[in-house]
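Sequence in, structure out. First:
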Amino acid sequence: MEENAPASRPRAATPDIAALTRSLARGDEAAFREFYDRYFDRLLRYLLVVTGGNETAAREALAAALVRVVRHVKPFDAEEKFWSWLTVVARTALADESKKQRRWFAFLERFSRHAETENVIADDGAAEETLRALLEKNLLSLLPDEGELVAQKYFQRRSVREIAEAQQTTEKAVESRLSRVRRKLKDEMLAQLKDKTE
């Protein structure tokens, strides 16, 4: 071989997927930053295609997908396999976020029948969004057992009988607790809505 022969051009750097995914599985923060830098934009573009350009849905699904990657990643020996797994995680997160959104709206509709807030806010497009934001804020402020009761009844769609059996109590006791929680949420939301309109 001649001394002056041109050196071959270096290949473009490719990620060491085995090392990266092993480090991710161990919870290595530097590995997550590397993963984020390499895959965030790519996953976002993928989800934008899947959602037909709905950026809000794509970003919400991506946030949920990133959490799942951190919790469930395992070592992969090839970038193609890793990317394939990431797309499955992203699509699953998108489907779950869509279901969650539908549950929120269904819950909001059911709750608003109890809350009787029609006279407090003007009947316009912003009313539903205002209610939803207030409801989410106040749900987070519930006591743990109250939040769990609401989740079982309105998000998991369990019947009062099922809840009563699981808690080894009566249906009447469950109904009474649900009524108190709804009243608590209603009072808090009405007070906050009045503050907004004053």
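Second:
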Amino acid sequence: MSTKLILIRHGETDWNLQGRYCGLQDVELNRKGKRQASLLYKRLKVGRIHKVYSSDRKRAIQTAKIVFKGLDIERLSDLREMHFGIFEGLTYGQITKGYPQIYKKWLDSPLSSNIPQGENFYSFRKRILKVVRKIVSLNYNKTIAIVCHGGTIGILINHILKSRDFWRHIPASSSLSIVEYKNGKPKIRLLNDISHLS
């Protein structure tokens, strides 16, 4: 008996393309992002999904509606991306120019850095792990889809792998990762798979 989580990062947005920090901002998918989600729909439509959860941000909801046509989608604000504070809406170049020291520290050691006006890394991790535990506990022996964000999935993967390399496990847009829980213990079955996009 196992509970399977199908983890999907939302499709591409114009802000992703521009290298902007989206965070809590409510941006929509671009044309490519919608196409990516359609390709993922074709890949997943043969399997049975018992329940779909999504971040309440537009980019995640749009992806979920394309990939899981006709299924009810439960929106959870706790699945949102990290709040990036003063970085929100800015490009990498703008941040480098405006906040060089803060940004360097954030890139070098995100676990021990606090972005002004943003969410503390450990608060973010606590929020994500709590909502995932709740989802797993409510869906014993079922296959569940979670459509959310790069940081959200990255946090969970890092926790399972006991890794401190946050950047290494940020998945690509419209990627597919699968985590299976047996006796409460998670195992990664698939990680950052984008074969459906090629």
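Remark: The mean pLDDT is 95.
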